[in-house]
Amino acid sequence: MEGPIGVIDSGVGGLTVVKEMLNRLPNEPIVYIGDDARCPYGPRSTQEVRKFTMEMASALSKMGIKMLVIACNTATAVALDEVREHFSFPVVGVIVPGARGAVKASGTGNIAVLGTVGTINSGAYDDAIHALLPDATVHPLACPEFVPIVESGLYKSKSAGDIVAKSLVGLTGKDFDVAILGCTHYPLVQHHIQAHLPANVNIISSAVETVSDVESILLSTNSMRVEGSKVAPIFYTTGEIQQFHSIVEDWLSIDEPDVRHIVL
Ligand code: I24
Ligand code: DGL
User: Fold this and answer.
1) CA dihedral 207, 208, 209, 210 (to 10 degrees)
2) Sorting pLDDT into bands at 50, 70 and 90, what band is 1?
3) CB-neighbour burial class of residue 152 (10 A; exposed 0-12, middle 13-18, buried 19+)
4) DSSP 8-state assignment for residue 125
5) Residue of the CA atom closest to atom 7 of ligand 2
6) What pTM did the predictor assign?
7) Which of 99, 156, 157, 171 has its CA 20 to 30 A from that of 67?
8) Residue 109 — pLDDT band, cuts 50, 70, 90?
9) CA torsion sign, 185 to 117 to 122 to 99?
């Protein structure tokens, strides 16, 4: 198999997955689509998220990708199966890898899951965890305040900690030793989350776990890119190029990244 690895997300959040890919698979060409014009997906209906996700997957399919990574938790939760049925390339979501990392890290099988309303309502993390560990106890918590904290830049301030603390009251009295960051944006408020959970709780980022799955598929399908010089990633946004460009520069430390507009 040849061609780039496609990565899709509701916006710029999936760059947390791209960052891990660039570190661990530096020779792989990446083509990314962020649906900024319709972000956030978290509060949207299942039907809408499925439709938007299929549109991004179709656009990348036409570009000849060898594999697709759905970096968005909300999109993975409701659209992974449909995307897999439609296309012949391998499709990797972020939920099964995140669930596997959590099950491995947990000594008790009691696991908290933080995510958007769409991700939590889908029950996708509960299902993935129980498939691996039938006796697990899952404590899901929707945290709709967290994405706006990050996107407003407020995540660096003290008041972000107060908002995070308020949301996490929903886990008071629950017993768990692992918490999954089941949303692309949550690694940016991880320090606030850790500070307001019991000290013994381990935090698992689905973004990190997902790249291990990408790597094993590349190896098992013998499609890892070996030869040649590094290829710069290409980023498509359905929204404004300017803002996307500065977030890519800042987050991935790429000078003059190739950011283009796309209409889906
Ligand atoms: N972080 C995210 N989204 C934003 C943002 C941010 N603005 C500042 N920061 N905006 O997601 C969403 C709105 N769109 C509009 C169209 O263009 C793109 C953005 C989290 C990104 C995680 C990789 C804060 C910020 C930043 C740089 C890096 C990381 C970060 F400015 F969180
Ligand atoms: N990318 C989304 C996720 O991981 C968060 C932002 C959104 O709600 O679209 O669930």
Assistant:
1) 50
2) low
3) exposed
4) H
5) 40
6) 0.96
7) 99
8) very high
9) positive
Q: How many CB atoms lie within 10 A of CB 240?
A: 12
8 Å CB contact between 37 and 12: no
CA of 12: how far to CAs of 135, 183, 230, in Å? 36, 12, 23
Active site residue 183: yes
Our answer on whether the CB atom of 249 is closer than 6 Å to any ligand 1 atom is no
Respond yes or no: is residue 72 known to be catalytic: yes
Residues with beta carbon inside 6 Å of ligand 2? 9-11, 13, 39-42, 72-74, 116, 119, 147, 183-185
Alpha helices by DSSP H, 25-178: 46-62, 73-86, 95-105, 117-122, 124-132, 146-151, 158-168
What domains are there in the chain, each with its CATH number? Answer: 5-93+208-261 (3.40.50.1860), 95-206 (3.40.50.1860)
Return the residue matching tokens 């850790």: 194
Task: Say which of 183, 214, 217, 259 is annotated catalytic.
Answer: 183
Strand ranges across the sheet with 258-261: 91-92, 67-70, 5-9, 30-34, 234-237, 258-261
The residue whose two tokens read 């199966």 is 81
Structure tokens that stand for 42 in this block: 């978290």
Sorting pLDDT into bands at 50, 70 and 90, what band is 23? Answer: very high
Distance (Å) from CA 14 to ligand 2 centroid: 8
Determine how many CB atoms are found less than 10 A away from the CB of residue 3.
16
| Sign of CA pseudo-dihedral 168, 169, 170, 174 | positive
Q: What are phi and psi of 92, to 5 degrees?
A: -110, 130
